[in-house]
């Protein structure tokens, strides 16, 4: 199975007050931590970001949203559009403790589905999902109709929702879905 991993780094970081992806944790930049983990999962990793210059130092391919200003759904569309691979792993830039085992588990669940969406804390996590390239036209149609809610297209595709992660430890699961989007969460992340 050909897999491509994509880091979505297009958010405005308004609650954090600074770019979340460029914060440091244990002398490592958050987006580099995410990249290093995803690199163990797939041969190709790239970033979707509209401010390309600030990520140049990473030497990671960077692509911009094709539907500018349309939020995370546009980031997913861009990832699917540019991927040569059939399977795309998505990671947001504010989850510094993602774990390859979670993503491997989700990829194994994909089988004949169009997407695998994990649930954590009783909430779907579409920005940590696995998507097949073939759903691109459905997302494009939704964006053209200005329907920007990610979950809106789930009723039009064959989705597998994952609530249980097998034998993966609770700590790995909790850290994988830890979202660092404000200064308080950043302080907490420093204690992990």
Describe the structure.
With 192 residues, this protein is α/β, with parallel strands linked by helices. The protein has 6 helices and 10 strands. The strands form 2 sheets. Strands 1, 4, 5, 6, 7, 8, 9 and 10 form an 8-stranded mixed beta sheet that branches. The mean pLDDT is 94.
The percentage of residues in β strands lies in 15-25%
Low-confidence stretches: none
Task: Kindly report how far apart the N and C termini lie.
Answer: 33 Å
Instruction: Return the CATH class.
Output: Alpha Beta
Give the averaged pLDDT, no decimals.
94
Question: Which superfamily, in CATH terms, is the homologous superfamily?
Answer: Spore Coat Polysaccharide Biosynthesis Protein SpsA, Chain A
Q: Any idea what the CATH architecture is?
A: Alpha-Beta Complex
Which fold does the CATH topology refer to? Answer: Spore Coat Polysaccharide Biosynthesis Protein SpsA, Chain A
Q: Which structural class best describes the helix and strand composition?
A: alpha/beta
Helix count from the secondary structure assignment: 6
Order of helices and strands: EEEHEEHEHEEEHEHH
In angstroms, what is the radius of gyration?
16 Å
Shape verdict: globular
What's the β-strand tally? 10
What can be said about the biggest beta sheet? Answer: 8 strands, mixed
- Helix percent reads 25-40%
- Number of structural units classed as domains: 1
């Amino acid at each position: 199975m050909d897999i491509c991993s994509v880091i979505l780094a297009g958010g405005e970081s308004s609650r954090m007050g600074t770019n979340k992806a460029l914060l440091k944790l244990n002398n490592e930049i958050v987006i580099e931590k995410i990249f290093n983990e995803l690199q163990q999962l797939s041969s190709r990793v790239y970033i979707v970001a509209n401010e390309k210059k600030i990520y140049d130092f990473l030497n990671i391919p960077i692509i911009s949203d094709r539907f500018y200003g349309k939020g995370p759904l546009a980031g997913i569309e861009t990832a699917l559009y540019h991927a040569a691979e059939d399977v795309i792993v998505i990671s947001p830039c504010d989850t510094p403790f993602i774990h390859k085992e979670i993503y491997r588990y989700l990829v194994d669940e994909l089988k004949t589905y169009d997407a695998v969406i994990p649930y954590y804390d009783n909430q779907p996590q579409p920005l940590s999902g696995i998507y097949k390239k073939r759903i691109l036209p459905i997302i494009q149609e939704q964006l053209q109709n200005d329907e920007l809610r990610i979950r809106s297209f789930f009723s039009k595709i064959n989705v597998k929702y994952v609530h249980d992660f097998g034998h993966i430890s609770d700590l790995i699961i909790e850290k994988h879905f830890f979202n660092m989007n404000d200064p308080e969460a950043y302080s907490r992340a420093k204690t992990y």
